[in-house]
Amino acid sequence: MDRSSRNGTFPASSSTTRIVDVQVPVAIDHAYSYRVPSGMEVRPGDVVTVPLGPREVVAVVWAENPAPDPRLHNRLKDISDKLDVPPLRDELRALIDWVANYTLSPRGMVMRMSLRMGEQLGPERARPGVRLSGEPPRRMTPARRRLLEVLSDGLLRAKSDAAKEAGVSTGVVDGLVDEGTLTIQPMPRAPPPPPPDPDFAVPDFSRSQRAAVDAMRTLASNGTFHVALLDGVTGSGKTEVYFEAVAETVRRGKQALILMPEIALTGQFRDRFATRFGERPLEWHSELTPRTRARNWAAIAAGEAQVVVGARSALFLPYANLGLIIVDEEHDQAYKQDEGVRYHARDMAVVRAHVAKIPIILASATPSVESEVNARKGRYQRIALTSRFGGQHLPQIELIDLRREGPSRGRFISPRLAEEIRTAIERREQALLFLNRRGYAPLTLCRACGHRFACTICDAWLVDHRFRRRLVCHHCGFSMPRPNQCPHCAAEESLIAVGPGVERLQEEAAALFPDARTMVLSSDLITSIETMRSELNDIAEGRVDIIIGTQLVAKGHHFPRLNLVGVVDADLGLGNGDPRAAERTFQLLNQVIGRTGREQGHGIGYLQTHQPEHPVMKALVASDREAFYSSEIAARERTGYPPFGRLASLIISAGDRPSAESFARRLVAIAPIDKDIQVLGPAEAPLALIKGRYRFRLLVKSARSVDLSGYLRGWLASAPKTRGNLKLEVDIDPQSF
Ligand code: ADP
Ligand code: ZN
Fold first, then answer.
1. ipTM over 0.90
2. Which amino acid positions bind Zn(2+) 1, per UniProt (predicted)?
3. Pocket of ligand 1 contains residue 255 by CB under 6 Å
């Protein structure tokens, strides 16, 4: 829209008006040009507001535009305002560019992650506070009386807090402000978080830890780009050891970021941090209130927060002077974001460290095959911790062959495992039954007619959730009450549960051990990080005898009384045809068994399996990690799968099958020929129907040396537009394939 000519002003002359390119936070890939109004000083990285269509949006000045097309000049709009927040520094803009380019995501969408979109940016606005003025109210009501009682101590309280404490609406507060009974004044801004003290409580390191500690300190004080793989067995003290790199970074006045899988962000970690540094770290994850997010964002951008512990999205924050990144449990799949901008936070953390020229530490007891290969090739420095701290032994692992010593029909805990659990409880130790399956049973069928309950819009069975008394689809969330009658043949009392979930295991455990206290830990029962914290506390303090859990319990936790893990179905993750299945299973089982024997006594893990000869089972029993990685690496090398080749997955979906399939075929037909690139498919995606959408998949495989993102960009640019409800999603480095 040509604003200047419409209202008759003269066009500004090009010699005096500056033009800059501004990236707006929407799904577009390039910056738009805007004029800089006279008197405004902006530089690349500055956060501004600009008009975009009918809206005003928060955006970022991306670059100067030294030679704008003069004909465009008068059609451009002005930047509205420059916000009083720290700029997005060059290194962060370089990361955003890199991620957008690599993942084929619009740059505007990647940038949104740095700006905490949807919330007010900038320094926290002062909240209104209220206190008593001394004037009596003109009229008294029960609500007013409660409010005045709360405020009778004369202290200043935030308006909303006062209302909440008294159990009244803020309208009651406003009424008394209008009558002069309460005075209103701004609440003082919360002080910046107190800095952690790097010398607060340095532990005594064991002899085997000392070399790793020295390596940590050196790496942090060198302050250059360098990747270290902190490869330490469970219970070796990886956290204590990497804390020394954090301490060194803090001493140098720089910020440290500790990335964790979201669910591991529990009180235990924060308490340990406080024990070591005297203060808790600043947190960043999806459950922060908007207010805390705003405050933490500002503290990070201003450089007041010295140590940040966060989930993957913390990687994109505008740190003022980031000096170190740690990726804890680096092998964890939760680092992959699978919607919106699809990125792998561990890999992008390495990119960030590279552009910022800082060290990064990847920590794990079971590194990803990618990191293991990088360490073997010398691209990453391996820092190893091969024994547990305090002389504790690594857990022993035994197999229970379900073909020979399985439980009776409809039961899932074998007699031998039951016996071991009984002994553990008698010794007043805890036991953990591990089954990576939520709900009561994965399938419900009718004994009379064979009808199976399936989701109508997904290619999946409905999972029986007894605690909620519903059958639930784990893919779209559809649920229905569990009926008493078969909807197909109308038989009564004919429905049977097939297979176990954690809820069913609890039923079995309760029947076997009527006096034991059981607890189910599963993501659908844990509604927040807060409930997780309290459940973990109950375990740590011994208020539970048998823990029954999904992978939620496998990660990072330290349970001092746990010495026995029974893996109910060790084969569960192996059967799905995914080339990463063996790696995943090996990591998961190692992690979960690694929860045992950490403080006293001997840990032991029992694996119930139908495949005792499987390489994963054999490696676990023999504690032969090297053998496992070597055979897995050889297999990847032979087949050209990552990290020896590159891989992308294109998912084409539509409301009907033929449209999705024919679009996928057209894509294949126009794929540019390249001898280093293979396009496989189309084939039905592993889940061929989700939420009523039919899905086809193309796998694109290339040599490592190929710029696969560039190839895809060229190919997709010439593809027909996805019209109607056709959708094309690109996933670089898919985690399951
Ligand atoms: P990992 O992360 O390698 O599984 P942790 O860092 O959780 O191991 O350490 C296991 C336990 O040993 C924790 O309770 C930790 O506090 C303790 N620990 C490790 N190293 C030391 C040390 N040097 N001094 C005191 N306690 C330690
Ligand atoms: Zn469904």
1. yes
2. 446, 449, 486, 489
3. no
